[in-house]
Amino acid sequence: MKAKRWVALGIAALLFIVSISFQFAESLATTNMDNVVSGSENNAQQKVMEQGGSGKIAVIELQGTIQDTGQTSGLMSAGTYNHRQFLRTLESAGENSSIEGIILEVNTPGGGVVESDEIHDKIVDIQEETGKPVYVSMGNTAASGGYYIAAPADNIIAHPATVTGSIGVIMQSVNYSGLAEDLGIDFQTIKSGQYKDIMSGSRDMTENEEQILQRLVDDFYQDFVSVIANGRGMSEEEVREIGDGRVYSGEQAKELNLVDELGSLDDTISLMKEEEEMNNPTVVRYQSNAFSFNQFLGSSARSFILEDTDLLGIKDLLMDTNAPRAMYLYTE
């Protein structure tokens, strides 16, 4: 039986390698290498979307939950949102003298408070230090943290069916004390202070603890309100009136002055050319050089091993702690 198991494992490994090889060969065969130009700044790569003159518009994609997981490499982590890599790519586009304008193609439900703020600040720095316009093209979803990073943009363009808004802050934990009691599980906690295990899932939250966390959430919400008020030229009262956590369609968002225009990525590119009076710029998709090969391998490995990509979050869920984490996140 052991021999048969080893033979089966060997065949499975061989099939995996063959599958990866064929997919990689197909990817190379279908890639137009003439449209790929490797940049020298911060290890950035530019793939031509629309050929033009020497000036360029850089399109940078922000896809997935905005969260710094601390993973910078690895087969199974490749292809997901990488916060540090995204910041480096954005910074590279800002520093590249051939880039005349930046378009962020945003499709995200938001994410961490700190990560969203870091992206927001990077956008503002680019605008103030280089004078380059930054536009945002919203995809299916650009909610909560996705809107937070869009707020300072010179122009925000959403599809009429884009889900956006969700202006607010959320902190959540799972209280499994009832289940633990049913299972006869008893928790022993030794702590240095009264609130050291705040938001622990092993017990109910006290009124004082709830007040402490509510003050945190209120402070972060004030930051969110200020960012939108400054970015959109609105009063804080106007922002608070529409910023109660609800989501809006792109069309509704335009009526509320949360977005400027309705349209697609192509419409955003055309608008930037017209508004910024650009003379036939080349449009490039801007990304890290490390993206293509690692992401290809990561995507192939995940699709081969797991058909349901939602299962990829199991490890992170199991390893997550009960530490309170504030999020600018739209949750369904």
List keywords for this structure.
10-stranded mixed β-sheet; 2-enoyl-CoA Hydratase, Chain A, domain 1; 332 residues; alpha/beta; 11 helices; single chain; two-stranded antiparallel sheet; hydrolase
- Our estimate of the beta-strand percent is 15-25%
CATH architecture assignment name: Alpha-Beta Complex
* Rg, Å, rounded: 23 Å
Helix content: 40-55%
Look at the structure and give the mean pLDDT: 83
Overall tally of domains: 1
* CATH class descriptor name: Alpha Beta
Please identify the structural class as seen in this structure: alpha/beta
What name is given to the CATH topology? 2-enoyl-CoA Hydratase, Chain A, domain 1
Secondary-structure element sequence?
HEEEHEEHEHEEHHHEHEHEHHE
Name given to the CATH homologous superfamily: 2-enoyl-CoA Hydratase, Chain A, domain 1
Regions with pLDDT < 50 over 5+ consecutive residues? 26-42, 72-78, 296-309, 311-319
Largest sheet: 10 strands, mixed
Instruction: Using the alpha-carbon principal axes, give the shape.
Output: globular
Oligomer: single chain
Q: Can you walk through the features of this model?
A:
The chain contains 11 helices and 12 strands. It is an alpha/beta fold and 332 residues long. The chain has a single domain, classed as 2-enoyl-CoA Hydratase, Chain A, domain 1. A hairpin with a 5-residue loop joins strand 1 and strand 2. Helix 6 crosses helix 7. The longest helix has 29 residues.
Short description:
InterPro entries: ClpP/crotonase-like_dom_sf, Pept_S49_SppA, Peptidase_S49, S49_SppA_C. This protein is an alpha/beta fold.
